[in-house]
Amino acid sequence: MTKPQIPSLKPLMACCSLFIVLAACAPPDDVWNRVLETGTLRVGMDASFPPFESISADGALAGFDVALARELGRRLGVKVEFVANLPYDGLYDALTAGADRSRSGVDAVISALVINPDRMADFAYSVSYFDAGQVLVMREGETGVGGMADLGGRALAAEFGTRGDMEARKWARELSDLTILPCQTAAEALGAVAAGEADVALVDHVSALGQTPGVSENPWGLVVIGKPVVEEPYAVAVRKESQRLLRAINEALAEMEADGTMSALVERWLLGNSF
């Protein structure tokens, strides 16, 4: 009888050894370890930006980001402790102070924070959970527009002085028959479309959702068309070295996107609300 051949364990042992070496070389995430030890995730925000975060008359925190943070905490298995009295300009300072868990320091920032490439040397961002950029809005039932390139021969309303206004004027130089209708506010631009004074509006996504509450109830009869024309992604920020915490947050955000939780938050806090 031929002796059975036993596979060599050397390749497997080599792979395991490499994994152990890499794990040993990976920088420790003190913040993640502390979150697990204390069972608490400290989240910083500037609670003055409804519908994302605000403080009610009775002192309660509410908004999209507040609900998002609490859901992240639930999925990470920890309690969320808010530091909500931070000025927007001080959010990154609070992250830096959180390295030694000072009283004003935080582990993460969730505060309608736009991803800023200039900050990436010291801080890291999660995947974007909402894009507040400029979007096109039309009357429900109208067709023929999928993006800015389709606006030739149409009138476009935009809030004067915004990124949407700048984008509209850029396209007006490329589409000679595109008419720009400047408005004082995003609501005025949306109203112009609803009244038939303009064919399309280019406004920020939050304002657009505030006037397009969906199929069941849409008093202005408006719908968002396509993807954001100008992107403004909101993300969770952590310190650069908090890679284990960042990975856990990204995994939770991906789960929330896949199981419909993120869509439910948008519907609860953004659709049809008066901001």
In short:
This protein is α/β, with parallel strands linked by helices and 275 residues long. The chain is 35% helix and 21% strand.
What does this structure look like?
The structure is a single chain. This protein is an alpha/beta fold and 275 residues long. The protein folds into 2 domains: 28-131 and 233-269, D-Maltodextrin-Binding Protein, domain 2; 134-230, Periplasmic binding protein-like II (D-Maltodextrin-Binding Protein, domain 2, 3-Layer(aba) Sandwich). Helix content is 35%, strand content 21%. It contains 9 helices and 15 strands. The chain has helices at residues 10-25, 30-38, 64-76, 91-97, 163-174, 186-194, 205-210, 243-258, 261-269; strands at 40-44, 48-49, 53-55, 61-62, 79-83, 108-109, 123-125, 130-131, 134-139, 155-159, 179-183, 200-204, 222-230, 233-234, 237-239. The strands form 5 sheets. The protein has a 5-stranded mixed sheet with strand order 11-10-12-9-13, with helices on both faces. Mean pLDDT is 87; it is low at 1-26.
- As a percent range, the share of helical residues equals 25-40%
Overall 3D geometry? elongated
CATH class of the largest domain: Alpha Beta
Tally of separate domains: 2
Largest sheet: 5 strands, mixed
- In the sheet with the most strands, the strands line up as 11-10-12-9-13
Q: List how many beta strands DSSP finds.
A: 15
For the record, the CATH architecture of the largest domain stands as 3-Layer(aba) Sandwich
Sketch the topology as an H/E string, one letter per element: HHEEEEHEHEEEEEHEHEHEEEHH
Number of helices: 9
Global structural class: alpha/beta
For the termini, the CA-CA separation is: 82 Å
